[in-house]
Amino acid sequence: MQNQKPYYAVIFTSTQTEDIVGYSEMANQMETLAKTQKGYLGIESARNSVGITVSYWESLEAIKQWKQNSEHLFAQQRGREQWYNWYKVRICRVEREYEFEK
Amino acid sequence: MQNQKPYYAVIFTSTQTEDIVGYSEMANQMETLAKTQKGYLGIESARNSVGITVSYWESLEAIKQWKQNSEHLFAQQRGREQWYNWYKVRICRVEREYEFEK
């Protein structure tokens, strides 16, 4: 994930219902699919009481295309119907970054 | 966390060492301290193989002040010495957001 150009992050925060049948399969499937999308840069995910998935993209256009991907649209709909009590999506422009490695 | 004005997110992604003695106490302490800072808007956190903490701020200036807070500086140093193998910090401008609630 090297970059000089500005890039974008989508912060997806969610809480789940008790019915998570099929959820982890779909999550894996969507992660695999995201990686094939134009402008995809990376993804990071963790879940405890709240789930946070951050995906990184080259442009707002790439984010829009991914949002409108037909398989992804189906997953989003099933998410609202079945898996999620609540979610929030924030589209962000990464202004600056730094890293530490031991 | 209502807002009309643009605001900022700090995405802190990390992997830990095996020596996490004192980590969760410090994490709680820093979360409590962050909440008292000027310009603080909210925080969300989850950890599995990777930890993701996203904090939200009114301005870049508020983020800078929080980064330079003396207790926080001490925690950052101890983090690099003891708890973290790797971390990455991304300062982001939230461009757009939407929410779903069941």
Automatic annotation (TrEMBL), chains A, B:
Keywords: Monooxygenase, Oxidoreductase. Residues 26-77 form the ABM domain. One of its GO terms (molecular function) is monooxygenase activity. InterPro entries: ABM_dom, Dimeric_a/b-barrel, Jasmonate_Hydroxylase-like. It comes from the Bacteria. It holds the Pfam family ABM. This is Antibiotic biosynthesis monooxygenase. It comes from Winogradskyella haliclonae.
